[in-house]
Amino acid sequence: MAKSVSTVKRRGLGNTARVDAWWLQPTAVFLGLTAFIVYSTWAAFQNAHYEWGPYLSPMYSPPLFGEHGWFGAAPGWWPAWLPFSPAFIILPFPAGFRFTCYYYRGAYYKSFWADPPACAVGEPRHMYRSEQKFPMILQNLHRYFLYFAIIILGFLWWDAIQAFIWTDTEGGKHFGMGVGTLVLLANATLLSSYTFGCHSLRHLIAGRRDNVSKGKLSFACYNCVSNLNKAHMKWAWFSLVCVGFTDFYVRMVSMGVWTDLRFF
Ligand code: FES
Fold first, then answer.
1. What is the pLDDT of residues 206-255, one digit of tens each?
2. Measured on CA atoms in the order 182, 183, 187, 188, is the torsion positive or negative?
3. Whether residue 101 has its Cβ less than 6 Å from ligand 1
4. Separation between Cα atoms, residue 210 and residue 214, nearest integer Å
5. Distance, CA 55 to ligand 1 centroid (Å)?
6. Burial 68-106 (b: 16+ CB within 10 A, else e)
7. Is the CB of 105 under 6 A from ligand 1?
8. Is 149 a pocket residue for ligand 1 (Cβ < 6 Å)?
9. Higher pLDDT, 13 or 195
């Protein structure tokens, strides 16, 4: 009987038999994530123009601290030498959630540290450390970031509802709607589609069981999460862009650069 021998050939960085434009997706991911990181860092440092009328930027929600913050302008323990912004308290949680997300991990491992640059393309290192050793083992914190993400999502839905409640010059409250209301609604909806399609949530709801269909309610929830999970990459990008745009919209209206169109 003929003996079949397979050999694995090491490739150098970027070496591949692929003839398609494999570099396109990692490049687009690199540019998209870099743009978001630069913008959100800049927006977080502003500590201004994050609210207008009934609108609140998602990067500053919930309003724990700040001009109208629940606990005052800044926490007493904040070091005096460090500039403060309420966004510094909020953003680590959604950032940690995205950083440890299964989709983003696959995307930025390729685009930021070429590990590998794309499927079947040579990478710069010859060993695989996996995610079982420090620091990559911290990626397993994803399920805990999920809990915080769900809590923050609740506040963002509250903000979207509040965007329907307008205060007139005498202090009376009225039901109303502007373009910003729709922007905040879209933001909460897209973030929900991203968060509730999370792989960890799917596991928590029923995926960890041997028999996922045991329990009607949990099976129905499992199917909903699975359906959202199918397009997790799309929800990840749509929601990321929408978070950035929502902050930008509130900022532009607050600065008087844009006028919010009021429908009623
Ligand atoms: Fe992407 Fe959990 S896997 S949000």
1. 888 888 888 899 999 999 999 999 999 999 999 999 999 999 999 999 99
2. negative
3. yes
4. 9
5. 27
6. ebeeeebeeeeeeeeebbbbbbbbebbebbbbbbebbbe
7. no
8. no
9. 195
Q: How far is the CA of 70 from the centre of ligand 1 (A)?
A: 30
Cis peptide before 116 (omega within 30 of 0): yes
258 phi and psi, to 5 degrees?
Answer: -115, 150
- Rounded distance, CA 245 to CA 186, Å? 11
The ligand 1 atom at the shortest distance from the C-alpha of residue 200 is 2
pLDDT tens per residue across span 7-50: 555 678 888 989 999 999 999 999 999 999 999 999 999 999 99
- Which amino acid, one-letter code, is at 100? T
Report pTM. 0.92
State which ligand 1 atom lies nearest to the alpha carbon of 149: 4
